[in-house]
Design the sequence.
């Protein structure tokens, strides 16, 4: 009698490479404030954001995802034909089918890869990274491309003072592959459906289709409510992610949270009690809030600049739901990443 399956021996997983695509157009606070009731000084004081990137007509969500994915593959030294799967995390997809991940795989020439999309708002990348790591460890894939890609300008009202200055466009990607040692820690995640209307769409597509005279669907946010929830819930959960990896905060090389705004990042860094040697990503200052793309974009900037190229990084995403997900992962610039 057969008592077990002949499955591949489990492996460890790690991030092998990272890539990014930042849209060409740089948008200043002055330009954003020309379309809403605010001032550049208020925007920078409130969010820390000085500039952000807005995608042009040719910089579609898929085009940016393909560019970021190609950069990550090059960085990892992995050919498109070696990919077993592509996972795209995004909250700004306006086309329901086919999955964006399938189109990204085709755009890269990854003819052997499966593909699927994942939607978890600003926590999407960390959820997708957890899925990719589990696939490699279980033996169901050897190389997985994880992409966070957003065109947030497609789902915001440029006159809405609560969100128009904050959100932006871009794509970041990582290649996850086998490792001789553990290099992606257990994910810590939770969803609080009781706070689902703190960050939501003002109108559903069903409602807009039934009555086109309504406001077009756009995101709405209760900023104070989201801030309080993040401060109360994210820091304790992030500490659990560090502990789950068998580390303390003093062992970290970097903290790469979702790039919501600098006030939130600074509060979280303080609540975590990070020592001075831990590099804290603040890509939001020049890139804005790119939702599911923000963590890989910030990681890419840290690695490329040399600010943090080796060691464990605490990644933590949080956003609409409200929900969060995070884990500790070894940065792709260190030994064992190739």
Sequence:
């Amino acid at each position: 009698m057969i008592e077990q399956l002949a499955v591949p021996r489990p492996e460890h997983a790690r991030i092998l490479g990272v890539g990014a695509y930042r849209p060409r157009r740089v948008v200043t606070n002055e330009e954003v404030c020309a379309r809403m009731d605010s001032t550049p000084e208020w925007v920078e004081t409130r969010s820390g954001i000085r500039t952000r990137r807005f995608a042009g007509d040719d910089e579609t969500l898929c085009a940016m995802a393909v560019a970021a994915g190609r950069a990550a593959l090059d960085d990892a030294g992995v050919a498109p034909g070696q990919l077993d799967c592509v996972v795209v995390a995004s909250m700004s997809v306006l086309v329901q089918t086919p999955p964006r991940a399938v189109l990204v795989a085709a755009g890269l020439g990854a003819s052997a890869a499966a593909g699927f999309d994942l939607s978890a708002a600003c926590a999407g990348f960390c959820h997708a990274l957890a899925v990719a790591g589990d696939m490699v460890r279980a033996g169901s894939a050897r190389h997985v491309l994880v992409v966070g890609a957003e065109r947030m300008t497609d789902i915001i009202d440029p006159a809405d003072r609560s969100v128009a200055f904050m959100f932006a466009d871009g794509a970041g990607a990582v290649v996850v592959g086998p490792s001789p040692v553990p290099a992606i820690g257990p994910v810590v995640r939770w969803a609080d459906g009781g706070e689902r209307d703190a960050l939501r769409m003002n109108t559903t597509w069903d409602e807009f289709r039934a009555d086109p005279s309504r406001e077009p669907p756009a995101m709405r946010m209760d900023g104070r409510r989201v801030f309080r929830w993040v401060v109360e819930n994210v820091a304790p959960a992030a500490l659990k992610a560090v502990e789950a990896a068998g580390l303390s905060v003093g062992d970290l090389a970097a903290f790469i949270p979702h790039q919501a705004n600098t006030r939130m990042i600074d509060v979280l860094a303080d609540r975590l009690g990070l020592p001075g040697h831990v590099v804290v990503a603040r890509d939001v200052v020049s890139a804005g809030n790119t939702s599911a793309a923000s963590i890989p974009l910030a990681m890419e900037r840290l690695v490329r600049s040399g600010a943090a190229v080796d060691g464990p990084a605490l990644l933590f995403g949080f956003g609409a739901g409200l929900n969060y997900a995070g884990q500790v992962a070894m940065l792709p610039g260190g030994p064992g990443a190739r």
Remarks:
- Residues 223-244 form the longest helix (22 residues).
- Residues 168 and 290 are 5 Å apart (CA to CA).
